[in-house]
Amino acid sequence: MSCLEVTRLSKTFGKDLALEQVSFQIDKHEAVGLLGANGAGKSTLIKCILGLIRPDSGTINSIEPPAYLAELAQLPSSLSALDLLTYKCHSSNHPVSAVAASLDEFHLTDKARRKPVRTYSKGMRQRTALALTLCTQPRLILLDEPMSGLDALGRAETLAILKQRNSQGAAMLMSSHIVSDMVQLCDRVLIMAHGKICEDIVIREHSLHEVKLLEEKLKYWTESTQ
Amino acid sequence: MTKFYFLTRFTLKEIYSQRIYQILAGMLVVIPWLMLIPTSLFMLDIGKVFIDLLFLCLHGWALVYIFFIACPLLARDLEQGTCHIFLTLPMSRTQYYWSRFAGITSGFIPLLIVFLVSSSLAFTFAESIWGTYIQTGANTSFIYGTLLILLPYIALTAVLFLIASSATGLPEITVFLFSVWLLCWTIPPVLGALQSADIQSSTPDAIVLIIKVANQLLPDLSGSDISLALAHNNPLQSFQVIGYCTHHLAYALLAMLLAITMFKRRDLS
């Protein structure tokens, strides 16, 4: 069963072609990675799916509006993590009881969660943004550089949480520059270059060999389509 | 409707938790009392002078609120992508814009209450010192005037949303809004000067037309001399007041509708 289906999506910014006839689908339980160099069109694709950018042509179908974690998520700095998550649950008609559990899951202590976001470290902000994205138990999650600003331990914890959500049935589309994270989490990786999906690679094993293979493919497609 | 309510409440919470808002509220407690000092330098019409000075403060804090609290809030939403949090709830862009507008305009209310209470107390104190020098009913005139003067600032807030609907960041929003504010204050005196036959004959027709059109398009911040009429205890006709309120509320509504139309068409990258 398809959670997200994108068909022939195209977008231009002036004369620049950002997306060209992009088509793919994500099934339930599936975690798909978007790999590409800077300017390949990964963020544009995610924002088109979210409706933040209007595509010129193409269709997007999803089972429910996706949850979204932005790259370097900018949270309202004067409010606390508790305020943000409470707001999200209220607005999404989700039980507010999920807030505490979600903050615990991301190791935001009782003291920290009541402080304004401006006092948080970069890692804490990213963890808050992740908690905000995941607190309503979404079935489709779009992640734009979710590991940004996290240290090695934070990355490992985040990956574990995302894997757990994936195993519980959430479908994911994650863009990242860190190939090793992608290999650990994703079932498939879409390599993007110059607004096109060049290759759809199934990850068979979580190994260093797979990481090297993906890096080589990325290099090949980025250089060959220039 | 639930999303509208929660985002409006969230916006208010965001505004209240800002230090600049708390400082502004604190200053509004003190400023009316400080205005008694320059008032005491005048010999006649002390009540009118006091009201004029309080109205000046009112224009000042309303402007501080719009430029230093509302502008950065909206600019951050667009510039840093904070609006993505709300829009991906999901929430329509129309709901998002109306909720933010409702939240920001509601932010005026606590400041207004603080200002009115402090000013009324200062008035009572002034009456106890200067007694007969302050005309009767001056305090009531001041309260009416305050409410009426604040209406154009709601229209200016709508203009802020109109500018933000196609702007990319804080500098752009601030510069354009400041220009609008400046034009709002400078065009009426120019139009006044154009009443003179000499000046009108020496001004090209095209310029006169541009000034008149700009005057119609911009919000009327001068308060249509309503503040002056109140300060000087001149009677106000009810149709004048109704017309004035309708004009500013309709202006705000139209500006918001245009802003939403533009905002719905833009890419939020």
Which percent range describes the beta-strand content of chain B?
A: under 5%
Task: Indicate the mean pLDDT of chain B.
Answer: 89
- How would a crystallographer describe the biggest sheet of chain B? none
Query: How many helices of chain A?
Result: 7
Number of helices of chain B: 13
| Form type of chain B | globular
Proportion in helices of chain A: 25-40%
| Sheet with most strands: strand arrangement of chain A | 5-6-7-3-8-9
Shape of chain A: globular
* Helix content bin of chain B: over 70%
Condensed summary:
The complex is a heterodimer of chains A (226) and B (269). With 226 residues, chain A is α/β, with parallel strands linked by helices. Chain A contains 7 helices and 9 strands.
Can you offer a commentary on this structure?
The complex is a heterodimer of chains A (226) and B (269). With 226 residues, chain A is α/β, with parallel strands linked by helices. Helix content of chain A is 36%, strand content 27%. Chain A has a six-stranded mixed sheet, with helices on both faces. Chain A has a three-stranded antiparallel sheet with strand order 2-1-4, covered by helices on one side. The mean pLDDT of chain A is 87. With 269 residues, chain B is mainly alpha-helical. In chain B, 80% of the residues lie in helices and 0% in strands. In chain B, α2 packs antiparallel against α4 (46-79), α4 runs parallel beside α8 (138-164) and α8 (138-164) packs parallel to α13 (238-265). Chain B starts with a helix and ends with a helix. At the A-B interface, α1 and α2 of A face α1 and α5 of B.
